[in-house]
Amino acid sequence: MSRIGLQPVAIPQGVTIDVKGQTVTAKGKLGTLSLVVSEDVTLKREDNAVTVQVKNDTKRARMAWGSVRANINNLVRGVSNGFSRNLEISGVGYRAALAGKDLVLTLGYSHEIRYPIPEGITVKVEKPTAIAISGADKQKVGQVAAEIRGFRPPEPYKGKGIKYANEYILRKEGKKK
What is the spatial distance between Cα 90 and Cα 76, in angstroms, rounded to a whole number? Predict the structure, then answer.
């Protein structure tokens, strides 16, 4: 039995949820997101909540139950508050800047990296070494942050590279004489 699947998804003020068959659409101040859910679960809209129930008691249906509920909760949170990820750049000469709709990264390579910012994502460069990524879709925000981090992941000896703001880098001891 799914503990997460049992909990109803509360709908905050200013968010409208539309359930048609297996499609859930959420509209809020940050935009519109939709999700097509598995055929193994049923969705019911009651007052200010959406509940997810299992159609049949198969292993696949029970696995999808909590995941569908979590994804619907992410839709509601995304259109009402949004999601954000913060990245930090460390290293001599490493920096970031915005140029139009591109993020320009200087990461110690012989060239600068131009990353086109996708639709629905907002990127802010507060300092040359701090990047804030925000948007309504949790998956897209995480994917953009992972792609930017992938250009120069942090290395364990000096800690140079791009890391998440809440990430801790295990440091290794250098070579001894």
Answer: 35
